[in-house]
Design brief:
With 345 residues, the protein is mainly alpha-helical. The chain has one domain: ABC transporter involved in vitamin B12 uptake, BtuC (Orthogonal Bundle). Helices cover 72% and strands 1% of the residues.
Amino acid sequence: MTGSPALRPASASVPDLAPAAVPGPGRRPRRVARPDVRTLSLVGVLLVLVAVGGITRPEQFLSSGNLVLILTQSSVIGVVTVGMTFVIIGGGIDLSVGAVVALATVWATTLATQEYGLGGILVCAVLVGVGCGLVNGALVAYGRMVPFIATLAMLASARGLALQLSDGRTQVVDDEAVLRLGYEESRVLGVPPLVLVFAAVTVLGWLLLNRTTFGRRTYAVGGNPEAARLAGIDVHRTRLLLYLLSGLCCGIAAFLLIVLTGSGQNTNGNLYELDAIAAAIIGGTLLSGGRGTLTGSVLGVLVFTTITDIFALNNLQSDVQQIAKGLIIVAAVLVQRRADRGTAL
């Protein structure tokens, strides 16, 4: 009777599903979910870096001013990373984020735009970011272009247009309301406005990714686009919205950069795309799509910014810093692969 298909246990015909719900004999249950393990690991890395900074330069690194500086420097690239995380989870990539930030800062700081004050600068930066995201999304979703090629073309075009608009010059912001946001007097309970914006974007992004239908569709499209299509999800529209979201984040980041530097120039946002992708990767986001967390990405941003701060305080060369970042990325990918193999066993 044991050979009869009708009496065979259900777990024998579906071996991959039953153990995931109820661990069988000889299989130890996972006590902590993999995303939690990665998050705790990143927290541990961040604590180690804080300890290193505190030991090597205790007076400078542990000062409240330096900690606020780390958070402020994390704000611009952090907002960009939020949008990048959505795109990667959805199975795409956006190589144009740095160039879009540069174009938005240049366009928003022209003399014509500055005549409209703070509101005009903010709206212009956001519209430029969203416009570039719309072009990227249309090319990828409806033009059926490979995301790497489409966003690479946008990278070149946006950099060229930024250079043409600025004529290679730095455009200084004269609007007092914009500059005042960077003053210490504008802080709320000691926290700069840029950090508050970064926190707000992160929270809203987390809610969108984890508490809405759009977030579930993002994971589905990134994990298996064909299965998502068969399930009734509009894959093309979802991809378009993901690149629009990335463009929106670039526009917000551009405005924060204008406040931080008081200017706009075509060299802004250099290598932002690599920093954002690296932060998302060490945060547990798969480049193939379908998995990732905003919490991990934000921790990745803080890890890289803290490394940069420690190297600067210790007067170490930037090339050593880049080597350290590369080693961290490789280690993060190896940890991901090991975790995936352990789950498959």
